[in-house]
Design a protein that fits this description.
By secondary structure, the protein is mainly alpha-helical. It has helices at residues 2-20, 24-30, 34-69, 73-97, 108-117, 127-146, 162-172, 176-211, 217-223, 230-260, 301-307, 312-325, 333-338, 374-393, 406-420, 423-428, 439-453, 456-472, 480-492, 511-514, 520-539, 561-571, 579-587, 595-600, 602-614, 632-636; strands spanning 270-271, 354-357, 364-367, 494-495, 500-501, 628-629. It folds into 2 domains: 2-118, no CATH class; 122-638, Neurolysin, domain 3, CATH 1.10.1370. The strands form 3 sheets. The protein has a two-stranded parallel sheet. A two-stranded antiparallel ribbon has the order 2-3. The chain has a two-stranded parallel ribbon with strand order 5-6. β2 (354-357) and β3 (364-367) form a beta hairpin. α1 crosses α3 (34-69), α18 packs antiparallel against α19 and α22 (561-571) runs antiparallel to α23 (579-587).
């Protein structure tokens, strides 16, 4: 049997050598073992397929950019056609890859690249089903991007888009009826139209996963983390962070009740439409009436940006200057020529902000419908963080040009934003007029950061909890919407403004759900960005544990090249090593650790606990009085 196996290896090798034009006699003279000789040949084979993969990814990125930045039937047809051709090539490459005995290779990089090529993804589907999957996702994205609502105040004005109009209304309106109207109509316009499409997506996505030898899509997604107990690790992090979330939830509910009266119950979940955000995922837009010290002048960053004549371009240039100041890379000229940073008036496009790597080591872009607001000021730094990651790992083999895990990619820009949002930094770049901080302004600022970071945690966690159970079949199609609200209540303590039914499909109101984007990456990011922040702040000499003169929440690494060089070293690795290796390079730790986040917000947590106790605020929430039934008929009959 041993001889037959070796003979078979030589036959496979000969076939592959013929395909790539390598001389058989070179192998004979190599004189090594069959595995050694195969590995040498495999490295030459990698050069060929890496080049082809770069070419294919570049073509696909161009087609996807064209469609996402101009949603037309012609661009959709072209995108689907290019994707189908790329899928064919990927399948052919995969067929050759799996013929290699790559698990026995000695060279780590070669073995790791083959392990990534050995998972085919959605290209494993038949040509018809692959095209159907891509079209289903594109159709849902088009419904989302083209959705327009009628104005609550002027029902004849029916041209309100998610960005900027609806986002602005939810952020600034204090009329609960208007907020309910916007919240409900967005879901009626988007969610219901996507429900059947989403069923098709789940079935096709699961079929692709099974063709890749995974039980379902959730197992396929989790495979990228390369840790068998990753679900448990994430759950442990949430349990560690939950007490902090409960405190800020209780305090915000108390302030909302002061603002809106009995619309908000004393002990129940928070009505989600009152939280200033379409999805209730971050709550910073309610800060104006919830600040710990409301009598202290709160400097409005949005107003100051407008007062200083900031434009979208100036915000982007400000972000670039930060990255350059810590010795990261400036944006290439093509970035400024090809990015879309404001919403075009002449077309429909996907306004959800995104960073793009066109796989040619030269072309990197951002697509964003930028508004001059504090929120977009932060988002620009986040998206440019993605591009910085692209630029630092661009010279890696193509299969390593990705984050150590997808949470790393999301964390990089947010890590920078932690410095950018500090009063120290805003004052340094002239966006705060006050000369110094005091304990009250510092706590107010920490609270505003907490309304983005702490409040997001359960949302970032539950999004994929919902999808994992759908992909595994635990949650059936007839229970999609009710399960969604069960999880929203259990983890977030929020409720819809009206009763819901299975005729609704509220998850589709969130872009990542219908766009096939895993979401656990954001929860991971919101934990490890503080871990990274602590590490770079130590290197910058701006943080010392238990030193009240150098607290973590006041650190700003702007203009510090020691911090930037440490970050650059990790970014340049891409995914060439498992994520614990990359994390160790920057932090000295090999596991995700929530202690950085808890330390950052410790002064706020202490204040919240004292304030909630003083006000006799109920911590947690009783079951919601809102219901979710099989149909609207069931709702009416109760």
């Amino acid at each position: 049997m041993q001889f037959l196996r070796i003979d078979s290896v030589y036959y496979v090798m000969f076939t592959k050598l013929f395909l790539i034009g390598t001389c058989w006699c070179c192998l004979v003279y190599a004189g090594g073992s069959p595995v050694e000789n195969e590995e040498i040949e495999a490295q030459n084979f990698l050069k060929t397929i890496n080049s082809k993969t770069e070419e294919n990814q570049h073509s696909l990125a161009l087609a996807e950019w064209a469609y996402n930045s101009n949603i037309t039937e012609e661009n959709l047809r072209n995108q689907l056609a290019v994707a189908a051709e790329v899928a064919k090539d990927e399948k052919e490459i995969w067929k050759k890859v799996i013929q290699y005995n790559w698990r026995q290779f000695l060279d780590y990089s070669t073995k790791r690249q083959f392990s990534k090529y050995a998972i085919l993804g959605s290209s494993a589907l038949s040509e018809d089903k692959f095209r159907q999957l891509r079209k289903t996702i594109s159709d849902m994205k088009a419904i989302y991007a083209k959705a327009k609502l009628c104005d609550f105040k002027d029902p004849k004005k029916c041209d309100l888009a998610l960005e900027p109009e609806l986002t602005q209304i939810l952020a600034t309106s204090r009329n609960p009826d208007e907020l309910k109207h916007v919240w409900l109509e967005w879901r009626n316009t988007v969610g219901v139209k996507c429900r059947n499409l989403y069923n098709d997506y789940v079935n096709l996505s699961n079929e692709a996963a099974r063709l890749n030898n995974f039980s379902d899509t959730s197992e396929y997604w989790l495979n990228d983390y390369e840790v068998s107990d990753f679900k448990q690790q994430v759950q442990n992090l949430w349990e560690q962070l939950r007490p902090l979330y409960l405190q800020i939830h209780a305090y915000v509910r108390f302030k909302l009740r002061e603002k809106y009266g009995d619309v908000v119950s004393e002990k129940g979940p928070i009505p989600i439409h009152l939280l200033g955000n379409m999805w209730g995922q971050t709550w910073s837009n309610v800060a104006d009436f919830a600040l710990p010290y409301s009598g202290v002048e709160d400097e409005d960053l949005t107003a100051e940006l407008i007062r200083q004549n900031y434009t979208a371009v100036k915000i982007f240039k400000t972000a670039e200057e930060f990255f350059k100041s810590i010795n990261l890379t400036e944006m290439p000229q093509t970035f400024w020529e090809r990015s879309i940073i404001t919403k075009p008036a002449d077309r429909d496009m996907v306004c959800h902000a995104s960073a793009w790597d066109f796989s040619d080591t030269k072309d990197f872009r951002i697509k964003q419908c930028t508004e001059v607001t504090k929120e977009h000021f932060v988002i620009v730094h986040h998206e440019m963080g993605h591009v910085e990651y692209f630029l630092e790992y661009k010279d890696q083999p193509v299969k390593f040009r990705e984050g150590a895990n997808d949470g790393f990619h999301e964390a990089v820009g947010d890590l920078i934003a932690l410095s950018v949002r500090s009063t120290k930094h805003l004052r340094k770049i002239g966006l705060l007029k006050s000369k110094t901080d005091n304990s009250q302004t510092i706590l107010n600022n920490l609270f505003k950061v907490g309304l983005d970071k702490i409040t997001f945690l359960p949302f970032g966690y539950l999004m994929d909890l919902w999808r994992w159970d759908i992909f595994s079949g635990k949650t059936k199609p007839e229970n999609y919407n009710c399960k969604w609200w069960e999880l929203r209540e259990k983890y977030q303590g929020v409720e819809p403004p009206v009763d819901r039914s299975e005729e609704d499909f509220d998850p589709a109101a969130k872009y990542h759900i219908i766009a096939d984007v895993p979401y656990l990456r954001y929860f991971i990011s919101f934990v490890i960005q503080f871990q990274f922040h602590r590490a770079v702040c130590e290197k910058a000499g701006q943080y010392e544990h238990n030193n009240p003169d150098k607290p973590l929440h006041e650190c700003d690494i702007y203009q510090n090249t020691d911090a930037g060089n440490a970050l650059k070293k990790m970014l340049s690795m891409g995914s060439s090593k498992p994520w614990p290796d990359a994390m160790e390079v920057l932090t000295g730790q090999r596991t995700m650790d929530a202690s950085g986040l808890l330390e950052y917000f410790k002064p706020l947590q202490n204040w919240l606990e004292e304030e909630n106790k003083k006000n006799g605020v109920f911590i947690g929430w009783e079951p919601s009085k809102k219901v979710c039934k099989k149909s609207n008929t069931d709702l009416k009959s109760n």
